[in-house]
Amino acid sequence: MTQPSERPAFTPSQRAGLEIRRTDQDRTLDAIHHLEAALGSAAPGREANWLADVLAALTDLDEATIEEQHNADQADSLLSDIARTQPRLRNRVRGLRAQYRQVRDTIQTLREELGARREDNHPDYADVRQRLAWLLSALRHQRHRESDLIYEAYYDAFNTDIETESAR
């Protein structure tokens, strides 16, 4: 068994990638919470204002996920590092990226659709809530799969918990 002092340490690039990922996830999580708050506010009798608030929150989520996807697609990202150094996980990285693109496409489509309804004084708020709940569920599912993959890959490579190593 490898002793703690004998374990390979994360490279500065890996540490930077981990920090970028945390920042991206925090930003996206804040946007998710903003959208959930907008969706949970009262809609009857104030449909136009409700829709404007939901659209603003969805715009925040769109911007956060654009940045998150951009950073995850960089050659020095954690996902790129895993794909490069652990060939057995390349297909899972590819699958995560494809799933994230689908989520991003859905966000953009919903933004366009809701933006076109902006003048509608009676949007079907129950339908909007349901559709955005599905989107948020898909986004959470993708994030869980990504976290599992990253932790698995780094535990295999360094025989240590990523949280323990990143706290050093």
Task: Describe the protein in words.
There is one protein chain. The protein has helices at 12-40, 47-72, 78-85, 90-116, 125-158, 162-167. It has 6 helices and no strands. 77% of the residues lie in helices and 0% in strands. The chain has one domain. The chain is elongated, with a radius of gyration of 19 Å. The model has no long low-confidence stretch (mean pLDDT 87). It has 168 residues and is mainly alpha-helical. The longest helix has 34 residues, at 125-158. Helix 1 runs antiparallel to helix 5 (125-158).
Defining traits:
mainly alpha, single chain
Judged by helices, strands and strand pairing, the structural class is: mainly alpha
Question: What is the H/E order?
Answer: HHHHHH
Q: If you compute it from the alpha carbons, what radius of gyration comes out, rounded to the nearest whole angstrom? A: 19 Å
**pLDDT averaged residue by residue:** 87
Unreliable residue runs: none
Number of helices: 6
Helical content stands at over 70%
How is the main sheet built?
A: none
| Overall number of structural domains | 1
DSSP, total strands: 0
Q: Judging from the principal axes of the Cα atoms, what is the shape? A: elongated
Specify the oligomeric state.
single chain
How much of the sequence lies in strands comes to under 5%
Distance between the termini: 21 Å
